[in-house]
Amino acid sequence: MASDDKTRTELEAAVYRRLVDHLRARTDVQNIDLMNLAGFCRNCLSNWMKDAADAKGVPMTKDQSREAVYGMPYEEWRAKYQKEASAQQKAGFEKAQASQKH
């Protein structure tokens, strides 16, 4: 691992940017699929960014954090790319949520 905090932070930031770029390119992957497989989605990333901003006292709205992750306003992304979840996706989501409560 990096020998100093500054380098470690720079590496982590680079990984985060690459992850966000990857998710922006993979608009075919729905948030519910990410939640079902990994337990987090684009919205989670944006919420974590907002939480980090709040912890540092950096002004950021939920809309701003979502735009930082989605690369466009959230409502625009939803209109362009979000599809209605299938019954199978919804069932998988419910199962995953139930297993996390135990």
List keywords for this structure.
0% strand, 6 helices, 102 residues, mainly alpha, 74% helix, SMc04008-like fold
CATH class call: Mainly Alpha
CATH H-level name... which superfamily?
SMc04008-like
Number of domains: 1
Largest sheet: none
Specify the structural class: mainly alpha
Question: What integer value in Å does the Rg equal?
Answer: 16 Å
Distance between the termini: 34 Å
List segments where confidence is low: pLDDT < 50 over at least 5 consecutive residues: none
Q: What can you see in these coordinates?
A:
- By secondary structure, the protein is an all-alpha fold.
- It has one domain (5-100): SMc04008-like fold (Orthogonal Bundle), CATH 1.10.3340.
- Helix content is 74%, strand content 0%.
- The chain has 6 helices and no strands.
- The protein is globular and about 45 Å long.
- The mean pLDDT is 94.
Short overview:
74% of the residues lie in helices and 0% in strands.
Give the helices and strands, then pairings:
Layout lengths: L4 H21 L5 H8 L3 H15 L5 H9 L3 H8 L5 H14 L2
